[in-house]
Amino acid sequence: MIQVQGVYKSFGDLEVLKGIDLEVKKGEVVSVIGGSGSGKSTLLYCINATENIQKGRILVDGVDAHDKATDVNKLRRNLGMVFQQWNSFPHLTVLENAALAPRIVLGKSKKEAQDIAKHHLNHVGLGDKFDEYPTRMSGGQQQRLAIARTLAMKPGYMLLDEVTSALDPELVGEVLDTLRLLRDEGMTMICVTHEMAFAKEVSERVAFIEKGIIEEIGEAKQVIENPANEKTQRFLSKVL
Ligand SMILES: Nc1ncnc2c1ncn2[C@@H]1O[C@H](COP(=O)(O)OP(=O)(O)O)[C@@H](O)[C@H]1O
Ligand SMILES: [Mg+2]
After folding, report:
1. Disulfide engineering: 209 pairs with which of 34, 109, 159, 192, CB 3.0-4.6 Å?
2. Is the pTM here over 0.90, yes or no?
3. Whose Cα sits closest to atom 6 in ligand 1?
4. Residues with Cβ within 5 Å of ion ligand 2?
């Protein structure tokens, strides 16, 4: 379980998160929506301790992410993060890219690392691309490679930051299908997304964040179709 409790985060004088409370249970998918600059990415970076926080607490499986004694590398391995634009190593094949982390970070043998990589590449529909180079693939395929690379670390959670927003519209679907598959397998995910239909269909709950405050959080269908908060209504009327 991920527990974000009363979290405040500033960059200098700019207060970006203003008392965030969020609990994501094992197996749950929560989407985070909101306008640009509202603090969505910062929230994910605070959860995986890439950014420090000024106040509050973040617990991942009960471990305080910001405690000095916490092994942040271990924490981050457990919180597979996928970004909008994911840069694979262009000089390595798809298989080599996906095998890299199991080999180097998890210390697997070359054979074991490749087996893990193949398993996850098959899973995201890249079973016929092992020997291809990332730059020769479409954006959707590259994003699925990014997801496979993250899965190869065997994370307990996935933190996804607008993973489809750099894609041509016709490529969005294949990436969202991959996330649906992971959801169906019980992967716990926090998805920052601007795909409202996806948020509604795939997540249990949706959180709307504005100016560093979760203004509304609730059952996905209710928040997207019938938001209670005026600010959520205003945001959705602009994006839908
Ligand atoms: N490293 C940083 N240093 C200073 N300001 C930052 C930094 N990262 C983000 N910000 C600011 O924090 C605010 C929230 O950013 P962000 O979390 O990226 O928003 P979102 O992901 O919702 O678009 C923005 O005003 C942004 O300019
Ligand atoms: Mg962002």
Report:
1. 34
2. yes
3. 11
4. 40-41
